[in-house]
Design a protein that fits this description.
Keywords: Phosphoprotein. By secondary structure, this protein is α/β, with parallel strands linked by helices. It has seven helices and seven strands. Strand 6 and strand 7 form a beta hairpin.
Length: 217
């Protein structure tokens, strides 16, 4: 699957050149003419990197960056500002907003591609870390639930055994089917609890009605 890049540039020729360069280098590219247009495109397009011109009508690159970095859904996208401004003051302003990198126009093609490759590596690393943290949180939660259920389950198993011991042979015979169902149910619960306690590699799978569940075996 190709890595996705969004180019946000109001100048038609520059937008065309960037799109062709990135497409030739095997990226999937979407283009926007300003920040407002970019926000619409992002509803259906999920890039790893955004290249945005600083100065644009309607919504400029820095304002777009500010909006996206404040949104949990978009904040991990690697955001590169394209600008003719080269002063330290301007760069500091952009970094304070949350831009990840700057390229001064006119952009040298190989440098641009190198920055994009770097941005994609950083994006991928951030998502790997988030997935690892999520997996750890799932394991911790599963273990906690497992331990919480295990104590009352142990009491239930002992009580069931005690009740069975107190029954005479005639009662055991009459209740044989019920006792079998209860024992099998308790064993299934116990197996599930052990899977939760010793869960190592949680997998979240699709269930029904667009719901998801943890696969334990």
């Amino acid at each position: 699957m190709k890595d996705k890049i969004l180019v946000v540039e109001d100048e038609k020729d520059t937008r065309f050149i960037l799109e062709k360069l990135l497409t030739r280098n095997n990226y999937e590219v979407a283009t926007a003419i300003n920040g407002e247009d970019a926000l619409e495109i992002l509803k259906n397009f999920s890039p790893k990197v955004i290249l945005a011109d600083w100065t644009m009508p309607v919504l400029d690159g820095l304002s777009l960056c500010n909006i996206l970095k404040a949104d949990e859904k978009f904040k991990s996208i690697y955001f590169i500002i394209l600008t003719a401004r080269s002063s330290l003051k301007d760069r500091i302003m952009g970094l304070d907003i949350g831009a990840d990198d700057f390229l001064v126009k006119p952009v040298e093609n190989q440098e641009l591609l190198a920055r994009i490759r770097s941005g994609i590596r950083i994006y991928n690393l951030q998502n790997e870390l988030k997935n690892a943290e999520h997996s750890k949180a799932v394991v911790d939660l599963a273990c906690t639930i497992g331990h919480k259920i295990n104590n009352p389950l142990s009491s239930l198993m002992l009580s069931l055994k005690s009740i069975e011991n107190e029954l005479n042979d005639d009662s055991k015979s009459k209740l044989a089917d019920d006792l079998k169902v209860m024992k099998e149910s308790v064993e299934r619960i116990n197996k599930f609890v052990q899977q939760l306690i010793y869960l190592k590699n949680p997998q979240v799978i699709d269930y029904i009605d667009e719901n998801r569940m943890i696969k334990t075996d």
